[in-house]
């Protein structure tokens, strides 16, 4: 049983890393604009799909990954510019519908461009698994965990050490005050979407060698990312990362130790319980609402 | 006159900082009792404690002889305390009359089922409540605007609408949080008359207000707070002569309310 | 408000008036999961139908009439399938329905076709579609029950006693799972583990290490989509050396491509179509299969058995219409039921009152993946 | 009375449509789907549009209704009407139990929690195959019978489903115009404000959540009998989203907006089928477009755009008379 436990943990952290990157994207966009971007999962899909296409036309591997990320960032910027910005005064519910519309639109676009097949990317550095006792870990898992850790650290530094990062946080705290002290809120919004798209795209190319990708692969990852962001306390980037890893581990422990059929149910039951007892998520700001 | 609303050693802290500290006071039935103090003195926090929106960290609140600590706001409202807000909490998605009708909520009994089938009993009740609401609108001089969307109302009328709505709960005690804030002189004097009119109906009033002329004109008694603590209590004349009060206000600099306007 | 009401009424009027079709055509209705989670079924199915309807028309049609194909995309949603089936019957007034990529959409429309009394040939897998027999309902793909039997026979031959089962939580996987559980003891097999995974799951190592802990002799996976490829990869990543069996749900080259080298040695039951060129010249189906394969691949790329089911369904209907000499629904139905020795892509069909599929276990070949290609296990 | 004017117009459209277009697919088949979807949407609108509480899990209640009817009539041969009542009862219980903790959440947290609830219920439909039939679903759900009248044809279903819709709209109309309705809208306007007016906001949110769940469950039971077959795919997360889109697209906080939204969203795929692979793309674009340009929804948005056309005319004619 202990090897099942260990294997479940490894799997959980790998998949959880992808959730974490998607969740981080959710948190960043929410921070700046109070919008939950349901098209976040589509960034993941577009990243992986673009890389697949670029490789297919003979682009060198690293360049293909790099260009794929640029494609995703462009999609993120376009989304902000043409769907989010024009609908500025929209309520929570209508922004939800807009981003769901955007996610359906991107899926439709992907369907036309890439068709309905599953695609896979080659692993970054071979497929020979590394043995840890009776459990194994693939090199790609290490890539996923490692690059996720680096990205998360960079985002953390960005928010705490750079002027732009601090300006982004200021926009979230009080957009009117932010614009009064000369922070270009509009450009910050654009930047946030670009950054989230980048993170989503990165999750896409990292996870594609493990999980494959298809035009409709984004939906589920988007949902899980949203759950991760909520679990960590919306608007708390590092909370979202923790939430993502936690969700991944919960799912795979649920599958490995309890019941694979009910593993999603287990993950969501725990999510609900967390919300019931800590309505602001694990790391969200709590306290009485001031009137 | 008997004691009506009283607190004993009331304290409320937010993250270790006391917004209200060890406050004890009592109001009399039928009086207009004002709470004044510099900005940040904890006046709105006090109202939120009295209406159950915040739970006190410690201390007691008694209304008409029984403790109301820990009661949810709607229960406190049904016990007879209603309030208006510093920034009006008008239901902007409704008309003026509908806003006032919500105030009548606790005086109706028809539930989901009889409402959904529009039973004769619920229709009779609706007509009765509508009459009550109209009466309160008339009292506040808003009856001609009854069918108007509330989000189209000028600020002064929004403030009076809040009063009409609060009166519809048939309160014994009405807490008014800066009713004159943002009003011009003529609107302010109208508000003053309204407050006196409310007192004449036999409803006690507790007032938080920065406009000292208004406060001095309508109040029977004043409580002065400073940084959440009791500073002084007394009639307008007594407060105006109180050295501690004068010092506290002078210490705040001249941007603050001029006590001796 | 009134104006938008008017617009609504006008919209109704417009939609209802587009109801003109040429009465002379033989109308073949179909509703497939061309998008959505089962698009890998619906897509080749639709392409096959379109290709062969064109071909038949260019050769002069059937009983002197042209065929007209009317298609709606269900996205594998049973709710949509119900309305589209009604639309085909009521609005388009089709003569026969071939279609439904998934068991869910098929089961959903059965009450409707039964009531409308219209012949319906499904391309979905579940045995529930034809067991018990429904008067107007036929199907062309091999059942999951047949697949389970074929696999178990092969396991018996190899001396496998204990099987670790993993299945997809979709309709195909669930239905296959219940057949496996029901039939295992008949072949003297024990199921040591019974795990599952969701449609969009990305990693199954947790389930597989749990299966490994039960010490099976082989791992059997019932499912379709990307899941089986991930399972295959994960098994090898975990260093599990056991034989892997897959179902006929992965019978397409895409599976080998996705699973890569991990797919080596995987066995699965599948129609002869996949190994057309490796069939002996004497094989009765060889001509049909090779013709289908080459014309599909010339236009659309690698063939899968799923398109073959559509080919069979279309030709079963067309042959029945030819024999009946009319599009009278009852007569066509009777003729479909009388189908004997029909050489299809999936096997040789012999239908009867009690068998609305008409395929025997011999329609399946046991295949093994060797060097990235299918090979026949004898 | 004034409040029923829209109701009568709706009833008129429903009655006239099949008379003008007898036996038309779009009226008697799609019309049934529209009516059932609209019934759920009207209920959801009570919660979302009027009370301001989002639910991304309403497909679950629709499903609970459908599965109660399906299971009790097929496995235990219950009378469909008792099964339907049982479905409502079960829904009531489930809604009541989860409403308390869930409705303490706000905004996106509430969205996530309801979404999670919907997914859990869907898994409970998929996994216990021996009870629910799993992903292959439940077949042979018997025909509904009203006073000896079998509801077994499209036109009969048209009558029943639209009758149910009219009943639902009538109840919703009464509710919204009552003391309760005012309190609900007050909760949407300002929660503290409503509390101070003596509204028990926790209780009233729970009540309306239950009511809107019952609307969904009732429609779900009818759906099960109309389709004669149900499977978990019909009650997935996607349907929850579709329902929300119906309400928002049509226009929240108006009783007819959601019906209009349900009609549009049900018709859209039917008409977009001609675009084949472009269908998905177009659907997404339409959703975004409407929300960007008519954020209040089609119903409210369009009528606001149309009204000035008439008003301008009216005012200008008045001016010319005055001049």
Structural account:
- The complex is a heterotetramer of chains A (291), B (261), C (378) and D (323).
- Chain A has a single domain (2-115, 138-277), classed as ABC transporter involved in vitamin B12 uptake, BtuC, CATH 1.10.3470.
- Chain A has eleven helices and two strands.
- Chain A has helices at residues 2-33, 40-56, 61-84, 92-114, 139-161, 163-173, 175-180, 185-211, 218-232, 237-258, 263-277, and strands at 130-132, 135-137.
- In chain A, a hairpin with a 2-residue loop joins strand 1 (130-132) and strand 2.
- Chain A is globular and about 60 Å long.
- Mean pLDDT of chain A is 88; it is low at 286-291.
- By secondary structure, chain B is of the alpha/beta class.
- Chain B has a domain at 3-91 and 169-251: P-loop containing nucleotide triphosphate hydrolases (Rossmann fold, 3-Layer(aba) Sandwich).
- Chain B has helices at residues 43-50, 73-79, 96-103, 112-116, 120-139, 155-167, 185-200, 212-218, 236-241, 243-251; strands at 3-14, 17-28, 32-36, 58-63, 66-67, 81-84, 173-177, 204-208, 221-226, 229-234.
- A six-stranded mixed beta sheet of chain B has the order 6-7-8-3-9-10, with helices on both faces. Chain B has a four-stranded antiparallel beta sheet with strand order 2-1-4-5, with helices on one face.
- The longest helix of chain B is centred in the middle third of the chain and has 20 residues, at 120-139.
- The two termini of chain B are 31 Å apart.
- The relative contact order of chain B is 0.18.
- Mean pLDDT of chain B is 89; it is low at 253-261.
- The longest helix of chain C has 20 residues, at 39-58.
- In chain C, the strands form four sheets. Chain C has a five-stranded parallel beta sheet, sandwiched between helices. In chain C, strands 7-6-8-9 form a four-stranded parallel beta sheet.
- Chain C has twelve helices and 14 strands.
- Chain C is of the alpha/beta class and 378 residues long.
- Helix content of chain C is 43%, strand content 18%.
- Chain D is mainly alpha-helical and 323 residues long.
- Chain D starts with a helix and ends with a helix.
- In chain D, helix 2 (25-50) packs parallel to helix 7 (154-176).
- Chain D has one domain: ABC transporter involved in vitamin B12 uptake, BtuC (Orthogonal Bundle), CATH 1.10.3470.
- Mean pLDDT of chain D is 88; it is low at 313-323.
- A two-stranded antiparallel sheet of chain D has the order 1-2.
């Amino acid at each position: 049983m202990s090897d099942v436990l260990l294997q479940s943990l490894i799997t959980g952290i790998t998949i959880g890393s992808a959730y974490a990157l998607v969740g981080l994207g959710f948190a960043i966009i929410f921070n700046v604009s109070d919008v939950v971007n349901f098209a976040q999962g589509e960034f993941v899909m577009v990243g992986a799909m673009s890389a697949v296409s670029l490789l297919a036309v003979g682009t060198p591997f690293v360049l293909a990954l790099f260009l794929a990320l640029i494609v995703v960032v462009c999609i993120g910027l376009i989304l902000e510019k043409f769907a989010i910005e024009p609908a500025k005064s929209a309520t929570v519910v209508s922004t939800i519908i807009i981003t769901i519309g955007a996610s359906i639109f991107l899926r439709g676009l992907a369907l036309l461009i890439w068709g309905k097949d599953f695609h896979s990317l080659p692993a970054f550095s071979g497929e020979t698994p590394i043995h840890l006792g009776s459990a194994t870990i693939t090199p790609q898992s290490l890539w996923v965990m490692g690059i996720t850790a680096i990205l998360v650290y960079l985002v953390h530094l960005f928010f705490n050490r750079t002027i732009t990062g601090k300006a982004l946080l200021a926009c979230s705290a009080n957009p009117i005050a932010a614009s009064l002290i000369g922070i270009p809120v509009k450009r910050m919004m654009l930047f946030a979407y670009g950054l989230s798209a980048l993170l989503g795209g990165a999750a896409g190319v990292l996870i594609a060698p493990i999980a494959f990708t298809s035009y409709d692969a984004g939906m589920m990852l988007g949902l899980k990312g949203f759950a991760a962001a909520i679990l960590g306390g919306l608007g708390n980037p590092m909370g979202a990362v923790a939430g993502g890893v936690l969700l991944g581990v919960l799912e795979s422990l649920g599958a490995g130790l309890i019941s694979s059929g009910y593993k999603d149910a287990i993950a969501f039951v725990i999510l609900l319980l967390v919300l019931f007892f800590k309505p602001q998520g694990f790391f969200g700001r709590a306290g009485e609402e001031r009137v | 006159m008997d004691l009506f609303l009283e607190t004993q050693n009331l304290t409320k802290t937010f993250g270790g900082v006391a917004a209200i500290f060890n406050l004890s006071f009592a109001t009399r039935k039928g009086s207009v009792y004002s709470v004044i103090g510099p900005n940040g003195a904890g006046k709105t926090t006090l109202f939120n404690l009295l209406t159950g929106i915040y739970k006190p960290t410690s201390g007691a609140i008694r209304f008409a002889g029984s403790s109301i600590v820990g009661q949810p706001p709607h229960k406190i409202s049904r016990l007879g305390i209603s309030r208006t807000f510093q920034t009006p909490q008008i239901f902007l998605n409704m008309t003026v009359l509908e806003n006032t009708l919500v105030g009548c909520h606790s005086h109706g009994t028809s539930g989901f089922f009889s409402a959904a089938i529009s039973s004769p009993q619920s229709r009779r009740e609706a007509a009765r409540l509508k009459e009550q609401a109209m009466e309160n609108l008339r009292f506040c001089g808003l009856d001609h605007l009854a069918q108007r969307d509330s989000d189209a109302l000028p600020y002064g009328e929004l403030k009076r609408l809040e009063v009409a709505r609060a009166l519809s709960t048939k309160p014994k005690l009405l807490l008014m949080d800066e009713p004159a804030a943002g009003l011009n002189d003529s609107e302010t004097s109208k508000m003053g008359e309204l407050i006196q009119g409310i007192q004449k109906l036999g409803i006690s009033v507790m007032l938080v207000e920065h406009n000292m002329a208004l406060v001095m004109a309508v109040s029977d008694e004043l409580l002065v707070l400073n940084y959440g603590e009791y500073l002084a209590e007394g009639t307008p004349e007594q407060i105006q002569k109180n050295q501690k009060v004068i010092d506290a206000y002078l210490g705040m600099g001249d941007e603050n309310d001029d006590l001796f306007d | 408000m009134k104006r938008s009401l008017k617009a609504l009424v006008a919209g109704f009027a417009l939609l209802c008036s587009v109801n003109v079709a040429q009465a002379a055509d033989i109308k073949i209705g179909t509703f497939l999961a061309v998008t959505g989670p089962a698009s890998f079924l619906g897509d080749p199915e639709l392409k096959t139908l379109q290709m062969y309807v064109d071909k038949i028309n260019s050769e002069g049609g059937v009983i002197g009439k042209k065929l007209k194909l009317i298609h709606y995309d269900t996205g594998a949603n049973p709710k949509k399938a119900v309305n589209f089936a009604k639309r085909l019957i009521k609005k388009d007034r089709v003569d026969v329905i071939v279609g439904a990529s998934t068991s869910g959409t098929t089961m959903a429309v059965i009450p409707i076709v039964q009531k409308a009394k219209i012949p319906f040939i499904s391309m979905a897998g579940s045995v529930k579609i034809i067991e018990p027999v429904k008067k107007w309902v036929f199907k062309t793909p091999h059942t999951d029950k047949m697949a389970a039997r074929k696999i178990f026979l092969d396991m018996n031959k190899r001396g496998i006693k204990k099987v670790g089962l993993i299945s997809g939580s979709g309709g195909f996987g669930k239905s296959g799972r219940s057949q496996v559980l029901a039939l295992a003891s008949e072949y003297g097999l024990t199921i040591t583990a019974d795990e599952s995974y969701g449609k969009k799951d990305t990693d199954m190592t947790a389930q597989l290490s749990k299966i490994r802990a039960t010490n099976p002799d082989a791992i059997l996976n019932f499912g379709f989509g990307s899941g089986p490829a991930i399972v295959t990869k994960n098994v090898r990543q975990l260093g599990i050396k056991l034989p892997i069996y897959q179902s006929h749900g992965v019978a397409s080259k895409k599976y080998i491509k996705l699973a890569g080298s991990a797919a080596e040695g995987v066995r699965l039951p599948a129609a002869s179509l996949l190994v057309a060129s490796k069939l002996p010249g004497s094989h009765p189906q060889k001509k049909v299969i090779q013709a289908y394969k080459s014309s599909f691949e010339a236009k659309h790329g690698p063939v899968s058995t799923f398109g073959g089911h559509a080919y069979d369904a279309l030709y079963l209907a067309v042959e029945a219409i030819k024999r009946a000499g009319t599009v009278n629904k009852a007569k066509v139905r009777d003729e479909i039921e009388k189908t004997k020795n029909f050489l299809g892509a999936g096997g040789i069909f012999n239908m009867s009152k009690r068998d609305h599929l008409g395929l025997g276990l011999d329609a399946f070949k046991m295949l093994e993946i060797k060097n990235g290609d299918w090979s026949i296990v004898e | 009375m004034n409040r029923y004017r829209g109701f009568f117009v709706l009833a008129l459209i429903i009655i006239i449509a099949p008379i003008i277009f007898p036996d038309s697919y779009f009226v008697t088949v799609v019309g049934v789907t529209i009516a059932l979807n609209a019934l759920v949407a009207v209920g959801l609108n009570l919660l979302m549009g009027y009370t301001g509480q989002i639910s991304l899990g309403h497909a679950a209640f629709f499903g609970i209704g459908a599965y109660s009817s399906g299971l009790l009539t097929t496995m235990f041969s219950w009378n469909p009407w008792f099964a339907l009542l049982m479905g409502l009862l079960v829904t009531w219980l489930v809604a009541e139990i989860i409403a308390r903790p869930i409705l303490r959440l706000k905004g996106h947290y509430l969205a996530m929690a309801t979404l999670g609830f919907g997914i859990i219920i869907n898994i409970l439909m998929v996994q216990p195959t021996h009870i629910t039939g799993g992903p292959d679903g439940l077949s042979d759900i018997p025909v509904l019978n009203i006073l000896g009248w079998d509801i077994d044809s499209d036109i009969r279903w048209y009558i029943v489903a639209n009758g149910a819709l009219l009943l639902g709209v009538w109840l919703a109309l009464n509710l919204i115009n009552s003391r309760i309705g005012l309190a609900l809208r007050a909760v949407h306007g300002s929660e503290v404000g409503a509390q101070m007016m003596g509204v028990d906001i926790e209780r009233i949110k729970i009540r309306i959540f239950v009511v809107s769940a019952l609307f969904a469950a009732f429609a779900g039971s009818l759906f099960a009998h109309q389709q004669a077959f149900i499977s978990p795919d019909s009650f997935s997360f996607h349907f929850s989203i579709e329902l929300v889109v119906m309400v928002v697209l049509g226009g929240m906080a108006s009783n007819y907006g959601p019906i209009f939204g349900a009609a549009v969203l049900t018709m859209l795929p039917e008409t977009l089928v001609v675009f084949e692979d472009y269908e998905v793309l177009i659907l997404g674009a339409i959703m975004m477009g409407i929300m960007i340009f008519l954020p209040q929804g089609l119903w409210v948005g369009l009528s606001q755009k149309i009204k000035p056309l008439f008003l301008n005319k009216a005012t200008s004619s008045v001016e010319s008379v005055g001049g």
